[in-house]
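$ ./design --mode recover --in tokens.txt
reading tokens...
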């Protein structure tokens, strides 16, 4: 493990004002903008504005765990351009001693080139984008990777206009551009999102990244069950499981509170 503490502190101070400004803009939007309920924000390609407060617990095996408290959300800059953001704070004892620290902040720009019907039942939306990940952690504490990343991606959302089912295949490549840890992962992802009556929904999310540096497949699956309490507020629970011998965790669970605006 490499000590990158000094560089991390410099990055935190240099980007703190940018993140605070982003949160201020989004918080202002929550107060000033009417709620949008047409699309579900659990679909990463939905044209919605939202802010989620989330907590997830991961069983890492051998008696170790990781707890992730984070804020994530999205803001539509214009009808065909979306900005997503995340800020993660971790607590883990994977090294044998429990440490807590910020893990990462990420910004993701998503552009929607086209949206059209395929037939009487299905419609398609295309998406391309770029994610920037600023690592804030310390690998010696078991938090973060120590390297910043850039991650281009693309995908589609296939929406069934009769049942409400949405299928979202995505492909994204993560590459480090500085820091001591070399990262090169190509991630395949498939999301299925189904709304139900009385504001309920279910989402299945399968992620299968290939790690080119370590010749590994750290695959995971997530099931999310949620309910819209009102047009502006929703709650949900996550159930997570690691897949295969290269899994990053054994199992996990989480809770989320969503503000739509």
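writing sequence...
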């Amino acid at each position: 493990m490499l000590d990158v503490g000094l560089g991390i502190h410099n990055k935190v101070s240099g980007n703190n004002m940018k993140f605070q400004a982003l949160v201020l803009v989004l918080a202002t939007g929550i107060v000033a903008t009417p709620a949008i309920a047409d699309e579900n924000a659990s679909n990463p390609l939905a044209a919605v504005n939202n802010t989620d407060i989330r907590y997830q617990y991961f069983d890492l095996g051998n008696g170790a765990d990781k707890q992730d408290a984070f804020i994530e959300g999205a803001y539509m800059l214009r009808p065909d351009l979306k900005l997503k953001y995340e800020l993660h704070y971790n607590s883990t004892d994977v090294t044998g001693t429990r440490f807590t620290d910020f893990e990462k902040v990420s910004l993701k720009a998503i552009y929607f080139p086209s949206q059209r019907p395929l037939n009487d039942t299905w419609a398609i939306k295309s998406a391309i984008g770029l994610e920037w990940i600023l690592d804030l952690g310390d690998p010696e504490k078991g938090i973060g990777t120590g390297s910043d990343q850039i991650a281009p991606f693309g995908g589609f959302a296939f929406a069934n206009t009769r049942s409400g089912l949405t299928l979202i295949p995505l492909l994204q490549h993560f590459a480090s551009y500085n820091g001591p840890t070399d990262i090169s992962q190509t991630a395949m992802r498939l999301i299925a999102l189904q709304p139900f009556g009385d504001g309920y929904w279910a989402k299945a999310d399968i992620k299968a990244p290939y790690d080119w540096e370590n010749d590994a497949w750290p695959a995971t699956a997530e099931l999310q069950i949620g309910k819209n309490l009102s047009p502006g507020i929703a709650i949900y629970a996550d159930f997570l499981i690691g897949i295969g011998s290269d899994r990053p965790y054994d199992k996990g669970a989480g809770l989320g509170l969503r503000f739509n605006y």
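exit 0
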